[in-house]
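User: Predict the structure for this protein chain, please.
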Amino acid sequence: MEIESVKNRILEIHEVWDVLGDSIDCFKYGEIHESYVIEIIADYCISKGYEVEGFPIQKRNFSSMNPAYDEDYFCHDRYIKYLDVLATKKEDVFELMYFYSSTFWLEQFYDKEQYRERLLDYISCDVYEIDF
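Assistant: Here is the predicted structure, written as structure tokens:
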């Protein structure tokens, strides 16, 4: 999987996301579309063999032997943290995460260095409240 194909898929999802309305149902559908983007970027990272503290590849391998690594363990929030941490270490992941964020919320993420600083703040403050 190449970065440009991931970006194209993000743009396709954004086209649908961008026309959703302001109702509660539309908000829920928007979250679903954003979770697709997270899944696509995570799939890219996994295909590259990227891990953070063994997540998700080694942990997935352990899941058959250790019930602590059940499907609840592999939750959306843990994947968000995984991608944010990787984005501070891998330039290709940073590029994809910034592309996603600036495409969906241009008014909040219009500067790459500001985005990088925000990621570092999130990680240092552990806003995720979840461990690997």
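Residues 3-125 form one domain.
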